[in-house]
Amino acid sequence: xxxxxxxxxxxxxxxxxxxxxxxxxxxxxxxxxxxxxxxxxxxxxxxxxxxxxxxxxxxxxxxxxxxxxxxxxxxxxxxxxxxxxxxxxxxxxxxxxxxxxxxxxxxxxxxxxxxxxxxxxxxxxxxxxxxxxxxxxxxxxxxxxxxxxxxxxxxxxxxxxxxxxxxxxxxxxxxxxxxxxx
Length: 182
Ligand code: SF4
Prior knowledge:
Strand content: 5-15%
Bound molecules: iron/sulfur cluster
Strand order of the largest sheet: 3-2-1-4-5
Shape: globular
């Protein structure tokens, strides 16, 4: 069975890839315009390329980076709530993944967003299932949070860049700026 697995970054790919590639023929999909600013995007992309080469993974890249559009939508939603902004961010990436999986006749798609305990797990699952139904491709769900500690360990041992915040400039501000002025 062939799976197209969206990967948000190299550290989050490690443990899910290790476990799921024992059962499935995995191709990894890169599409993450939520990573800002652009130099951070390049840094995570470089780490991702380095690691996927190291493990000899098959990868499909979508380098599109619609910054103005992304920030325009995210800023409107952010004013209402962070959850709405994250829903948009998840849906954007999962929709691209589902379309690509359908186009290339994969059996299902999935995402490493299911790994981190600080992500909105149930929302990701619900959005992905809805997108899967609308695009006509199955979403593979597994609660990958059970592999989070192992993934952290693997990333440390691999010496791969590990980012300090989720991705967008809003999450960067939450992580560094607000924290420091309190
Ligand atoms: S906090 Fe993370 S999931 Fe939420 S919008 Fe920002 S990058 Fe996306």
